[in-house]
Design a protein that fits this description.
The protein is an all-alpha fold. Helix content is 59%, strand content 3%. α5 packs across α7 (152-162). The relative contact order is 0.15.
């Protein structure tokens, strides 16, 4: 009996070690190579298929040089204004999110996240979006490693290429072409801010027909962009 337990334990250990090595190989490869597909993309395709809808997957990887500085700045201003300063986690934002969510739960409202761009990138590239403590723990794990092995510019480049920006639309290039019929390099400040305003729920909010909330959020993002100025990756 003891021998069987030892054999099972060794097999489980080997499987866990193999999975860990595979993850780290992906982290290293994705520091240089485009991310071909993400778990969320696969999940959305499956949802479309089971709903009897045409399977749509619009994505077009482009380098950071081919993404408008307006889009990069809008994303940072909208989602994570301490992106250039923190090392993956904004503990102040997390504390505020926990406090806010406790109040929202009592009122029956949906909770909001306090994730940084680094955390969102880790989740988007390596994990499925379902909420659980296990997924959150893995998100912390992957965030630690991409912050350690990737540059800030690379993290933002990956983020802007894989983030969901509409039904079946992923990344700045696909969004720019779909919504504005232009390349991501040509996005104006207003266009970039409108796209970024929809990041919290791109399947609910519309870039093409923005409602009052999105217009208000877009204007706020544009004010933040004007105050920020520009992103300087050379200092990192």
């Amino acid at each position: 009996m003891k021998d069987k337990i030892k054999t099972i334990f060794r097999k489980v250990l080997k499987i866990m070690l193999g999975i860990t090595l595979f993850w780290h190989l992906l982290i290293i490869l994705y520091a240089f190579l485009p991310v071909p597909v993400t778990p969320l993309m696969l999940q959305r395709c499956a949802e479309q298929l089971f709903a009897g809808k045409p399977v749509t997957l619009k994505k077009d990887w482009v380098s950071m040089e081919k993404i408008s500085e307006n889009m990069a700045l809008a994303a940072v201003c909208a989602e994570d204004q301490k992106f250039m300063e923190h090392e993956g986690f904004d503990f102040e934002a997390i504390e505020k999110a926990i406090e806010s969510n406790n109040k929202r739960k009592k009122k029956g409202k949906p909770i909001k996240g306090g994730s940084t761009i680094s955390q969102q990138t880790a989740k988007n590239v390596f994990l499925f979006p379902q909420r659980s403590w296990l997924r959150k723990g893995l998100e912390v794990y992957f965030t630690f490693w991409i912050e350690l092995l990737w540059s800030k510019e690379r993290i933002l480049e990956v983020y802007l290429n894989v983030i969901e920006m509409g039904d079946g639309i992923y990344g700045a290039q696909a969004a720019a072409q779909h919504y504005y019929h232009k390349d991501a390099s040509a996005l104006t400040g207003s266009e970039a801010a409108t796209i970024a305003a929809c990041f919290p729920n791109p399947l609910k909010y519309s870039v093409q027909k923005p409602g009052a909330y999105i217009l208000k959020r877009r204007n706020w993002i544009m004010r933040q962009m004007a105050r920020w100025g520009e992103l300087d990756f050379e200092q990192k």
